[in-house]
Design brief:
Keywords: ATP-binding, Biotin, Ligase, Nucleotide-binding. It holds the Pfam family Biotin_carb_C. The structure is a single chain. The protein is an alpha+beta fold. It is about 35% helix and about 25% strand. It has 15 helices and 20 strands. The strands form 5 sheets. An 8-stranded antiparallel beta sheet has the order 13-12-9-10-11-14-19-17. Helix 4 runs antiparallel to helix 5. The radius of gyration is 21 Å and the shape is globular. The N and C termini lie far apart (about 50 Å).
Length: about 450
């Protein structure tokens, strides 16, 4: 097993990785910005190194500073968490070229899945269903207009290099397409340094379902069930649950098999997620993208399958067998994750500030993965996620009851927060029925 691990991330995910590392007797090394010096992940690590000022480009995305920290501390491996450099193929190659172990998929797999058009084409060749769309970038607006006419409106206009719900727009006709194309292209050039645009069929009523895969050290790819991720605002997830209430046993068999084929098509190793769109009316599903990293919502899979995905990542990276029998994977119960963000519960606009009160929920079936404690400051420099409130129960109904109690018991004052939204959602008839889609938050507002 790896003996020393540098965590190239911050907040709740850094704290989460450090917790598993220390349980396994691995020396945990944190890197942090000047703005994060007082956060729990820094104080809980065995060693911590400041890698720069608050600006992520000068700290958490500063490859030279992170590698220098790994060298100075004698780190054997680097875990990138999610976000920042986690899906940067050049960083993965540089880590390995420096003689360090990269806790993630190979750089070639990251590259293959990093471009949405290339990923679509690879998946189609592997027999994974893809939504009608372009097989090459829409080179200009005229090409986008022709493609949209062939696909049929409405269409989704997507940045080929985008991710995390960013760089997307919906066009219901040619006039809207002309506006969205320019908007998405300029956003993609500004944010990703790559302006390629993909045109794809848009489904007005759709569910977002994803499959957790794990590429093992022996070359096999296994699927650890699906997660429902349809409660979103601005195409970004707020709530995830497993198993999905929309997925029948027959559909589950098909979607998990497709996810395994997706991983096998790129020789996938380590943890990853195959994201799909599900048409609830027809039970058709389509490949959306593959996230070549650990997902924010991985805890719901951990609770349903009884595994520690960070430990499994470390074992794969070290060339070791998993802790579980890949041929005997069996889910148990139901789990729900609520992302507690520093944002107002109505318009979901960021609301950073000093945390005056922070009392986490406890009780049977309740888990909290947090990045902050009372007295910390949520700054405007990073993502607004403060904690993940995860509950599990024998049934979905029991999990929802525990989620209601946990939301009511969580005491948080200072920054704006979305706990009131979750209290509302957990009483919403559409959500309670399990028959909801990605527009549920819009309908609630």
């Amino acid at each position: 097993m790896i003996e020393s691990l540098l965590v190239a991330n911050r907040g709740e995910i850094a704290r989460r990785i450090i917790r598993t590392a220390r349980r396994l007797g691995i020396r945990a090394i944190a890197v942090h910005s000047e703005a994060d010096a007082d956060l729990p992940f820094v104080t809980e690590a065995d060693e911590a190194v400041c890698v720069g000022p608050a600006n992520p480009a000068q700290s958490y995305r500063n490859v030279e500073a992170i590698l220098a920290a790994a060298k100075s501390t004698g780190a054997q491996a680097i875990h990138p968490g999610y976000g920042f450099l986690s899906e940067n193929a050049d960083f993965a190659r540089t880590v390995e070229a420096s003689g360090l172990i990269w806790v993630g998929p190979g750089a070639d797999a990251i590259t293959a899945m990093g471009d949405k058009i290339n990923a679509r084409n690879l998946m189609a060749a592997a027999g994974v269903p893809v939504a009608p769309g372009t097989t090459d970038p829409a080179a200009d607006l005229d090409a986008a207009v022709v493609a949209a006419a062939e696909i049929g409106y409405p269409v989704m206009v997507k940045a080929a290099a985008g991710g995390g719900g960013m760089g997307m727009g919906v066009a219901t006709d040619e006039a809207a397409l002309r506006t969205e194309y320019d908007k998405v292209r300029s956003f993609a050039e500004r944010m990703f340094g790559e302006g390629s645009v993909l045109i794809e069929r848009y489904f007005p009523r759709v569910r977002h379902v994803e499959v957790q895969i794990l590429g093992l050290a022996d070359g096999r790819v296994v699927a650890l069930g699906e997660r429902e991720c349809s409660v979103q605002r601005r195409n970004q997830k707020l709530v995830e649950e497993s198993p999905s209430p929309a997925v029948s046993p027959e559909l589950r068999e098909r979607i998990l098999a497709a996810a395994v084929r997706a991983g096998e098509a790129v020789g996938y190793r380590n943890a990853g997620t195959v994201e799909c769109l599900l048409d609830p009316a027809t039970q058709e599903f389509f490949f959306l993208e593959m996230n070549t990293r650990l997902q924010v919502e991985h805890p719901v899979t951990e609770l349903v399958y009884g595994v520690d995905l960070v430990e499994e990542q470390l074992r794969v990276a070290a060339g070791l067998a998993p802790t579980f029998d890949p041929d005997a994977l069996a889910p148990r119960g139901h789990a729900i994750e609520l992302r507690i963000n520093a944002e107002d519960p109505k318009r979901f606009l960021p609301g950073p500030g000093v945390i005056r009160t922070w009392v986490e929920s406890t009780g049977e079936g309740v888990r909290v993965d947090s990045g902050y404690v009372e007295g910390n400051t949520v700054t405007p420099f990073y993502d607004s996620l403060m904690a993940k409130l995860i509950v599990n129960g024998a049934t979905r109904a029991e999990a929802i009851e525990r989620a209601r109690a946990a939301v009511a018991a969580f005491e948080l004052a200072g920054p704006k927060n979305n706990l009131p939204f979750f209290a509302e959602l957990l009483e919403n008839e559409e959500f309670l029925s399990g028959d909801y889609d990605t527009a549920i938050v819009t309908r609630m507002r």
